[in-house]
Write a structure and sequence with these properties.
heterodimer, A: 379 residues, alpha+beta, 10-stranded mixed sheet, two-stranded antiparallel sheet, B: 237 residues, alpha/beta, Rossmann fold, 6-stranded mixed sheet, 4-stranded antiparallel sheet, binds adenosine-5'-triphosphate, binds magnesium ion
């Protein structure tokens, strides 16, 4: 405790350098925070995927359809509890910037499988009665100021023409993690109006009675449709979500690369600052050792200095990043979640302290081993 | 009773056959050759000699900053040549006060903090440290400059702070390497007066290297270091 003033005067000694070093940490950790925000958003999909659900898609590609007749056949596979399906609509509301996912769903079965969502009974009833009805996720409803009863025009892209929907209700997620930034409407409406894709659906979801049988059942399903015009690829929802992420490029790898470059640069900046600081103080360190300060004590004083830089800078950077995320998602909901988690704050501070330690360790070891007599002669 | 008597006759510093050789490439420089020296408690001894004669080297060996090539240095009851680096460090903190030609104060610390520095290594409480620091600074006549930084002080005042720092932990002896070398005559005299006072009032033991004959005159004993050996020049006893 009584050595704190010694560390403090060293921090105050070159104020500009101290601020720039702390600033480097702040900028780096702010960037780190943003990277983890993006990473969390992307991996969120994988995390929330149901463990007891399989996704059945066209073997060739996700964008290729499957026949609606598969529903019956999937339901007959032993171990399958229920089956539902959906299609990607991909329409544009006003402008392309307003992107949000629209799914044509098999209304009768969808909620029984996606039990993490709920809709108020009277709204559900309204929806089931209205051929052009749609349900809006609670995470999406406020974005455009929509309310129940509104009529929403959406320009089709895959399915041409202008499509109009009536908002019948709002679906809610039962847990905060659920993705409620979606738009659901009746597959029936799509199928009736669009002739080009009649009798085809985007994908199936299959719910299992026993999740541990997932691999076996997936294999059975794929074998069942082998050598047909529509071969399938079946995997757990988790694997599906992860695979979907991979298609978007190896985000994680890119993030790790960027993160490493940031921290490596930071290490070089801080390391050289610490080396300069120790060089400037060679004589003082020799004097302190003469007075009886041990090498280890000197080492701790200098190491403390660089770890303080790291901690203060890191806290500022992550703090600003947290504030930034609290302002809301700047992509207008393209990311499912936009938040800096506590775990990543802790990780950021940990890495930051580590960089501080590494940056300080070589200069402080040199100071620890400094020979008094040689150092005194040099002046 | 007998033991105490013996201790009294035994000198504080006893140097036997001390040699220090530096190697520069293949060349060996014998700076100190089989040097013997006895200094009693309360003595004021000056070392003179041409530049490069090994005066600083000798002080470094006596202060445990450097290790000899051979020979023995016994100070009080400790044979410091056989102490480990770590032991030497804590021995220095307890037994030696250093005063340098260029003061060597820490520029970012106030006079008070500079003097407090050696006490940080002791178990003294903050209150006690404050008492000791104030006492040391008032002995050197700087009680009213405690919160000045070195750059706000004159050379003579800086050296007085350095002396306060050297005496604050009440060491066995003081080693001064040209303490007046960077000062004008009157400041130098003030420093010498102060050192004399430390001998008279506080019975300190002082070893001082100097080029200045006037400074050397203040001491009881002047030793000349030439070609690695000591020659006693005068003894005012
Ligand atoms: N690390 C070293 N390596 C080689 N030679 C050294 C080393 N340190 C000191 N010397 C040599 O030892 C000799 C004595 O040096 P020292 O500093 O003790 O002299 P000095 O009497 O204090 O001189 P001055 O009056 O100039 O301060 C010099 O010749 C010096 O060059
Ligand atoms: Mg010298």
């Amino acid at each position: 405790m009584k050595f704190i003033p010694l560390i403090w005067v060293n921090l105050k000694r070159k104020k500009m350098r101290t601020m720039l070093t702390i600033g480097s940490f702040a900028v780096a950790l702010f960037l780190f925070g943003l990277l983890t925000v993006i990473h969390s958003a992307f991996s969120h999909q994988v995390k929330i995927a149901g463990a007891d659900r399989l996704v059945v898609r066209n073997r060739i590609s996700l964008i290729m359809p499957l026949p609606i007749s598969y529903k019956q056949r999937l339901a007959q596979v032993s171990g399958v509890k229920s089956v539902t399906f959906g299609s990607w609509f991909g329409g544009v509301y006003q402008t392309e910037r307003n992107f949000f996912p629209q799914f044509a769903i098999d209304s009768e079965t969808y909620l029984s499988i996606f039990s993490e969502y709920s809709v108020a009974p009277e709204q559900w009833e309204l929806f089931m009665k209205d051929r052009q009805g749609c349900l809006i996720g609670e995470g999406l409803i406020e974005r455009f100021g929509w309310k129940i009863g509104d009529r929403i025009p959406i320009q089709g892209t895959i399915f041409p023409g202008l499509w109009e929907f009536n908002i019948c209700g709002i679906f809610k997620g039962k847990t905060p993690e659920s993705d409620t930034k979606q738009f659901w409407f009746h597959y029936k409406y799509l199928d009736e109006r669009d002739s080009s894709t009649k009798g085809l659906v985007g994908w199936y979801y299959v719910q299992l009675s026993d999740p541990s049988q997932a691999d076996r059942i997936a294999q059975t399903i794929d074998e069942m449709f082998a050598n047909s015009p529509y071969e399938t690829a079946t995997e757990t929802e988790k694997a599906f979500a992860a695979g979907f992420l991979k298609q978007m490029g190896n985000i994680q790898f890119v993030l790790i690369c960027i993160g490493s470059v940031i921290f490596f640069t930071l290490l070089l900046i801080t390391g050289s600052n610490m080396a300069i600081a120790v060089r400037e103080r060679t004589n003082e360190i020799a004097v302190m050792k003469t007075l009886g300060f041990s090498g280890i004590r000197i080492l701790f004083l200098i190491l403390a200095e660089s770890i303080i830089y790291a901690f203060v800078g890191g806290t500022i950077g992550l703090g600003l990043c947290k504030l930034y995320t609290l302002q809301g998602d700047p992509t207008n909901g393209m990311l499912i979640i936009f938040e800096l988690s506590h775990a990543y704050i802790a990780l950021g501070l940990g890495i930051s302290a580590m960089v501080g330690f590494l940056a300080g360790i070589i200069p402080s070891c040199l100071a620890m081993r400094l020979n008094i007599v040689d150092a005194m002669r040099r002046i | 009773m007998n033991e105490i008597k013996e201790n009294q006759t035994k000198s504080l510093i006893q140097v036997r056959n001390l040699s220090k050789t530096y190697k520069r490439g293949n060349e060996k420089i014998e700076v100190l050759k089989n040097l013997n020296l006895d200094i009693n408690q309360g003595e004021f001894v000056s070392f003179m000699g041409p530049s490069g004669s090994g005066k600083t080297t000798l002080l470094n060996l006596l202060g445990g900053l450097d290790v000899p090539t051979s020979g023995s240095v016994r100070i009080g009851d400790a044979e410091i040549t056989s102490l480990s680096g770590k032991q030497l460090t804590s021995w220095r903190a307890r037994h030696v006060g250093f005063i340098f030609q260029l003061y060597n104060l820490i520029p970012v610390l106030t006079a008070f903090q500079n003097v407090e520095l050696p006490l940080l290594l002791t178990k003294l409480s903050k209150q006690d440290r404050k008492k000791h620091v104030e006492a040391a600074l008032s002995i050197v006549g700087l009680g009213n400059r405690m919160h000045h930084y070195p750059r706000q002080l004159s050379g003579g005042q800086e050296q007085r702070v350095a002396i306060a720092r050297a005496i604050v932990s009440d060491p066995s002896f003081l080693l001064c390497d040209e303490p007046t070398g960077d000062l004008d005559r009157s400041s130098a005299n003030e420093i010498l007066d102060l050192l004399s006072r430390l001998i008279q009032e506080f019975s300190k033991t002082i070893l001082m290297v100097t080029h200045d004959p006037i400074a050397a005159e203040r001491s009881k004993k002047v030793l000349h270091l030439e070609k690695g050996v000591l020659i006693e020049a005068q003894n005012k006893d």
